Amino acid sequence: MRFVYALFAGLMLTGALPGLVSAAEASARQTDPLLQDIERYLLLYAATGDDRFLTRLDSLGVVFESQLGEQKQARTLKDIWQLHQQTLSKVRDAHTKKDVDLKEALQQTQEVADLFDSFLESSSDSVPSMRGELRELALLEARKANRKLLGEPSATQSERIEALCASLQSRLEALPDNPARDSLMAHWTFLRKSQAAGGTLLYPFNAQIEYLSSHIPQS
User: Where are the domains of the chain?
Assistant: First the structure.
């Protein structure tokens, strides 16, 4: 993990990172959608070892790499992306080989996710869209799953998740009463059921996130 700390310190010294934020602030930030999704699928794969998450992560990575040269501070992002790739390789080994410590891989995944969060600039939107709230909800559930495996539950994350669910419920109910809304509400109900008391069922939960994100109105 020395490489993680060295890279992080170097980025701070060069001013590449906008500065550390509190856990509550970080959870509420709206970041680049593609990078948010990459972070989410890395965390989901780390928490489950489910190859379906890995397949989605790989496809997102191809898109990100094709756009990397167009990003602000592309060199810094390339360094972080290299670390992401190394972490993903370690997580894959932890799920497929007996001699790799899964907990250590999960910890490194969390630190890389935190590094992405610290680098990404927050959006100027004062009121996030429904898609933005869904994406944040999905990312928080993925973080929560990893922290649970590490024995590091976060009350702040849980509170933010409930606040997002309440907001999304209200916004969905406020949509025009028609078959399209009925379909969205059915998927939302299934999503809420997947947030079981013993732990969120990550694959069905994420499947509903993907459906809702593709079908809800833009605003």
Answer: 2-152
